[in-house]
Amino acid sequence: MTEKTLPLLRTIEWKNNKVVMIDQTKLPVELVRVEYSDYLDVANAIKTLIIRGAPAIGVAGAFGLALASLQSKSSTKEQLISDLEIAKKILFETRPTAVNLAWGLEQIMMVAKKGNTVSEIQNLIINTAKQMAEDDIKINMTMGKYGSELFSNNDTIMTHCNAGSLATVAYGTALGVIRATKESGKNIKVIATETRPVQQGSRLTAFELKHDGFDVSLIPDTAVGYSMANKLVNKVVVGADRVLRTGHVYNKIGTYQVALMAKQHGIPFYVAAPLSTFDMKSSPQEVIIEQRKGTEVTQIGDRKTAPDGINVINPAFDMTPPELISGIITEAGVAKPPFEESIKKLFEAKK
């Protein structure tokens, strides 16, 4: 079976007690899959963006703990849980802002503590992690259906960063909404921002939308205002790495600017995120924004694009305040302002 006949890009899966994932650093030049049998390699893959996107790294963390359970030399439940706690800490520290990672790790630890023997715990963890991967696809498809109702025939939809199949197990959050809109029979076009400095928009979003036969145009990040002012865009939808109970959204750096410009031009700005991306406890002051290495900004590949020794500020994420957001699309429905009230209702409905 060739890659082109696959219905969806599958970002990560569990095969023969190994974790198999697409190496996203090689895209769009090559579609390469890597295999890991050591949880430290999974941790490194998350850290170095071989796998990225909040839902995908939530599942990667779960699979990482599944590998850690198989690697453990422990003969008792207590020893195994101790080894898993060490692995959990290493995996969590790879990307502190994306709440799905912490969520995925916590889910696995809860399940692990229910088992009695080492082999029972290992089986519980592996089966739970595999189920989380399947659930991610179903959740995204449900979210896509809710989101598709917000979009009209002949809309041109802007998206920032990559919230597609490559950011999830398959299907996608923001791109899942775009997929579902097209699947509902509506004619749509997409504008993808390049998303500097790591180019997730040009390398990943443009790649997978083109791969899946969408009408997609790529723009530099600096052309967002131009596109909106010239009425090239009707709606915006982005993913999220963390959503607070107040409706504050943390997403790839540059999202805040896109939301501000959308507000200025009267364009609806939507966020698509599963309930596992919601952080119902933290306040905006408590959220740690990951700072990434300066070379992401000062060079492209091996080519230098800035003078040696220059200071670099390179935050991975920014915060979009709730007053700029038209709605937050989840698998339980769409939260609308005032968000604190509507988000709470979605969680109550989910129970």
TrEMBL record:
<feature type="binding site">
    <location>
        <begin position="52"/>
        <end position="54"/>
    </location>
    <ligand>
        <name>substrate</name>
    </ligand>
</feature>
<feature type="site" description="Transition state stabilizer">
    <location>
        <position position="161"/>
    </location>
</feature>
<dbReference type="InterPro" id="IPR037171">
    <property type="entry name" value="NagB/RpiA_transferase-like"/>
</dbReference>
<keyword id="KW-0486">Methionine biosynthesis</keyword>
<dbReference type="InterPro" id="IPR042529">
    <property type="entry name" value="IF_2B-like_C"/>
</dbReference>
<feature type="binding site">
    <location>
        <position position="95"/>
    </location>
    <ligand>
        <name>substrate</name>
    </ligand>
</feature>
<protein>
    <recommendedName>
        <fullName>Putative methylthioribose-1-phosphate isomerase</fullName>
        <ecNumber>5.3.1.23</ecNumber>
    </recommendedName>
</protein>
<dbReference type="GO" id="GO:0046523">
    <property type="term" value="F:S-methyl-5-thioribose-1-phosphate isomerase activity"/>
</dbReference>
<dbReference type="InterPro" id="IPR005251">
    <property type="entry name" value="IF-M1Pi"/>
</dbReference>
<feature type="active site" description="Proton donor">
    <location>
        <position position="241"/>
    </location>
</feature>
<dbReference type="InterPro" id="IPR011559">
    <property type="entry name" value="Initiation_fac_2B_a/b/d"/>
</dbReference>
<comment type="similarity">
    <text>Belongs to the EIF-2B alpha/beta/delta subunits family. MtnA subfamily.</text>
</comment>
<dbReference type="InterPro" id="IPR027363">
    <property type="entry name" value="M1Pi_N"/>
</dbReference>
<comment type="function">
    <text>Catalyzes the interconversion of methylthioribose-1-phosphate (MTR-1-P) into methylthioribulose-1-phosphate (MTRu-1-P).</text>
</comment>
<keyword id="KW-0413">Isomerase</keyword>
<feature type="binding site">
    <location>
        <begin position="251"/>
        <end position="252"/>
    </location>
    <ligand>
        <name>substrate</name>
    </ligand>
</feature>
<dbReference type="InterPro" id="IPR000649">
    <property type="entry name" value="IF-2B-related"/>
</dbReference>
<dbReference type="GO" id="GO:0019509">
    <property type="term" value="P:L-methionine salvage from methylthioadenosine"/>
</dbReference>
<keyword id="KW-0028">Amino-acid biosynthesis</keyword>
<dbReference type="Pfam" id="PF01008">
    <property type="entry name" value="IF-2B"/>
</dbReference>
<feature type="binding site">
    <location>
        <position position="200"/>
    </location>
    <ligand>
        <name>substrate</name>
    </ligand>
</feature>
